[in-house]
Specification:
8 strands; 11% strand; 7 helices; six-stranded parallel sheet
Length: 308
């Protein structure tokens, strides 16, 4: 059955991909984003082109998740256009990157506003209609950090996502008797295909950042953007200048258990040969230390790869 769906934060990344996939599947999809006549004007045009090229019902709507008025106006328009709203996808979010100590309390509050309070604004606008219908679905795009992934320098983002995840769990209990279902999606770590890393915020206290840059992790790290995930020689926070990376690197040796599961940007998503961590997929429990690819071209077996 065709559903009417709104996806927040759908100008790029997961949101844009999800909106397009759902529209191609035959649903009426509203890719919501802020500043549709300004900074995201190009994304609006791309969505319209995708809809025309694929004969899909993909629409865009102005929705700033930091504004009650904007959320109310967007949801009202969707309901007026269709007479109903079936699915709300909470995808909008923002990430920051850097040592926790270097972020001000005000920065953490801003991040909480984007990642947690934004969902409350949209829910307050949308849930009355879903309750009226006595059916609907609320989808929350959470984070792998809520399942125990805790690499350093992402603490403010992880704390905010943990708050959102808790809100989703309790909300599900309150909504179920209204006939409203809840799904919490926990993506893995993606260093490409989104603007999460490119647009991530940085600590306001640059002096503290410098102290960490020159601290015990200096000259240690695994580059997350180098071909084949090789170990790079650059110091923490200076990888772009020294090795040409476009993303960032993990500030700890690869032998650390917490480093498991992160993409390296190479074709197979493999882990450096020096890692020695047991592969968590179809590799038969073998370690990548032997050069076994964690995501071989043939999913029926873990093929050898030639990465360093």
């Amino acid at each position: 059955m065709k559903k009417v769906i709104v996806v927040t934060g759908a100008s790029s990344g997961f949101g844009a991909l999800a909106a397009r996939a759902l529209a191609k599947a035959g649903h009426v999809v509203y890719a919501s984003m802020r500043d549709t006549s300004g900074r995201n004007k190009g994304q609006v045009q791309e969505a319209a082109k995708f809809a025309a090229d694929n004969k899909a019902d993909l629409r865009t709507v102005e929705l700033d998740v930091l504004s009650d008025a904007s959320a109310n106006a967007a949801i009202t328009k969707i309901i007026e256009d269709n007479g109903r709203l079936d699915v709300v996808v909470h995808n909008a979010g923002h990430m920051v990157f850097g040592p926790l100590e270097a972020f001000t309390p005000e920065q953490l509050a801003e991040l909480y506003d984007v990642n947690v309070l934004s969902t409350q604004r949209v829910n307050r606008a949308a849930l009355p209609q879903l309750r009226k219908q006595k059916q609907g679905l609320v989808v929350w795009v959470s984070s792998s950090s809520s399942a125990g992934g805790t690499p350093p320098y992402l603490a403010p983002y992880f704390a905010a996502k943990a708050g959102m995840d808790a809100l989703a769990v309790v909300s599900a209990r309150e909504l179920t008797r209204w006939g409203i279902e809840t799904s919490i999606i926990v993506p893995g770590a993606f260093t490409g295909g989104t603007n999460h890393f490119a647009h991530s915020g940085r600590p306001a206290d640059t002096q503290r950042v410098a102290e960490y840059d020159n601290g015990p992790y200096k000259n240690e790290g695994i580059c997350l953007d180098c071909s084949a995930g090789r170990r790079c020689r650059c110091g923490w926070g200076s990888n772009r200048e020294n090795c040409g990376c476009s993303i960032w690197k993990a500030p700890f040796p690869c032998s650390r258990r917490s480093h498991a599961g992160w993409s390296r940007g190479c074709e197979h998503g493999q882990r450096p040969r020096t890692c020695g961590i047991v592969a968590p997929n179809r590799s038969g429990g073998r370690s990548h230390a032997s050069g076994t690819c964690l995501a071989g071209k043939n999913p029926s077996h873990a093929e050898r790869c030639d990465c360093p």
